[in-house]
Amino acid sequence: MKKIFFFLFLVSMFSCQQKSPDKNNVQEIAKKEFVWEGANIYFLLTDRFNNGDPSNDVNFNRTRETGTLRGFKGGDIKGIIQKIKEGYFTDLGINAIWMTPIVEQIHGATDEGTGVSYGYHGYWTKDWTAIDPNFGTKEDVKELVELAHKKGIRILLDAVINHTGPVTEQDTVWPEEWVRTEPHCSYDSYENTTACTLVKNLPDIKTESNTAVDLPPQLVAKWKAEGRLEQEMSELDAFFERTNYPRAPRFYIIKWLTDYITEFGIDGYRVDTVKHTEEFVWQEFKQECDVAFDNYKKNNPEKVLDNNNFYLVGEVYNYAISHGKAYDFGDKKVNYFDKAFNSLINFELKWNVKQLSANEVFVKYDSILNTELKGYGVLNYMTSHDDGQPFDKERIQPYKTAEMLLLTPGTSQVYYGDETARDLTIEGTVGDATLRSFMNWNEIRNNETAQKILTHWQKIGQFRANHMAIGAGRHQLISDANGLVFSRVRNNDKVIVGLNLPKEPIEIKVSSIFKNGALLRDFYSNKTLKVIDGKVKLHSAFNIVLLEKI
């Protein structure tokens, strides 16, 4: 009998240990260093990634026939949640997700000669305070952030302050105190880039104005019909009383956007059309984002992932890392980093990879990030949603794309489908629509080539996520005589990477990083190696090596 009780006791103890994996995972996540300068961000169009709830596919009578890939296709927040649960992002080494805007879009459609278009992409705002039902609900957003954080994944939303959505029969223009509808931007000076409309029928918010304005009557009527006018007005009164800002257009929008921080605990914003808005607006936006993030952390200490500040990455179209801190408008140079952005999207990497050797790219980025941009970062990409000249539009170099994106110093942005060579040449599309097809899940399930490409991205992505030294460490060449071998070091995080190596027995010098007798793992082939005479010997079926200390 005593033996039985002892056995049951052991079973009970084992069961208790098995029931708390989440706690252990949170502890592991907390132990693993994360800095935005070395992050691996996954960028997806909310409507084009995964359809987790077909019941919300049609709203506001958005039923007109559209141009190819210019209507809603069903992707939603629940679809992202589903893939987080399945471990898709974790397997890919993703530690942050940037999703296109989820706020309520204009209800109608436009036709500017490219076929009928709806606001599926999220950049045509109707109401900054509401989630578009095509994307989901506030409950979905809350679940998304909480689940992502449990997996060590940060969430970036997309902020638009520069413009409203287009005017349609269903969507009236905002009052003239709020927006300008002309002139169109000529981009030949600072003023002709900021005090103008980006394109025809895209009303431009008067972000330069400090004149108090009333709320747009259509927004007041909408809130009243939804039964939340009193609540929204009360919150606005409290915001303007606290900040003492004038009730100018930009401050309303800043208030509405920072509410997503205090309510859901998002970790950052990617900011749209930065150079089309005065630089002081972004300094004000950062200040209020920081206040909101601090308040969220104070009110939810158990949900805090780490000590990182709120992250702001800006889209200054055509900004390049070679510009350093200053973007040149021709008649004026603007520093968007100081007092505003942690990072800017870098439009240069794809050209660097075509024109320079891999080590020349790595040396260039390591040098700039540790001199002119020290303390800041850049967000590198090879493919995006509105860049008609991606690095590999025909998808014939998916392996090189992975290596150069994920191993170049700086923050990396994986565009959804990069990791599976999703087709970027869709028949019948016009303009950037060809870049925005639905995620190719069927190929991932059934196509062996797509599966092999995905495995390559997963291995390098996980290695990058495990070692902040890859994106945020110092680069040092070891050898380029027989392939490229280099080290990355950040404090005690030290790794060695080999690219374009021969698929035959080779020796790799590691003495600059690892001591004799040290046991190393090649993360790519999962082989264990021992350092002897300052070298490791390896016979791998692959031409890439990712060495870490065991």
Please describe the topology of this protein.
Blueprint lengths: L1 H17 L2 H11 L8 E5 L1 H4 L27 H10 L1 H4 L4 E4 L3 E3 L4 E2 L4 E2 L7 E7 L6 H13 L3 E6 L19 E2 L10 H4 L9 E2 L11 H9 L3 H15 L5 H16 L3 E4 L7 H21 L11 E4 L11 E3 L4 E3 L7 E4 L2 H7 L2 H12 L7 E5 L16 H10 L3 E5 L25 H6 L1 H19 L2 H4 L1 E6 L4 E7 L2 E7 L6 E4 L9 E4 L4 E4 L4 E4 L6 E5 L1
Parallel strand pairs: 1-2, 1-16, 2-7, 7-10, 10-11, 11-14, 14-15, 15-16
Antiparallel strand pairs: 3-6, 4-5, 8-9, 12-13, 17-18, 18-19, 19-24, 20-23, 21-22, 21-24
By helix and strand content, what is the structural category? alpha/beta
Query: Which consecutive residue ranges, at least 5 long each, have pLDDT under 50?
Result: 1-28
Shape: globular
Highest CATH level, the class of the largest domain: Alpha Beta
CATH homolog superfamily of the largest domain = Glycosidases
Total count of helical runs of at least 4 residues: 17
Average residue-wise pLDDT = 94
Number of strands: 24
Helix content: 25-40%
Question: What is the terminal separation in angstroms?
Answer: 45 Å
The total number of structural domains is 3
Q: What this model shows, in words?
A:
The two termini are 45 Å apart. The strands form seven sheets. Strands 1-2-7-10-11-14-15-16 form an eight-stranded parallel beta barrel. It has a six-stranded antiparallel β-sheet with strand order 17-18-19-24-21-22. The chain has a two-stranded antiparallel ribbon with strand order 3-6. A hairpin with a 4-residue loop joins strand 12 and strand 13. The protein is an alpha/beta fold and 550 residues long. The chain is globular and about 75 Å long. 44% of the residues are buried. The protein contains 17 helices and 24 strands. It has three domains: 1-31, no CATH class; 35-164 and 255-444, TIM Barrel, CATH 3.20.20.80; 473-550, Golgi alpha-mannosidase II (Immunoglobulin-like), CATH 2.60.40.1180.
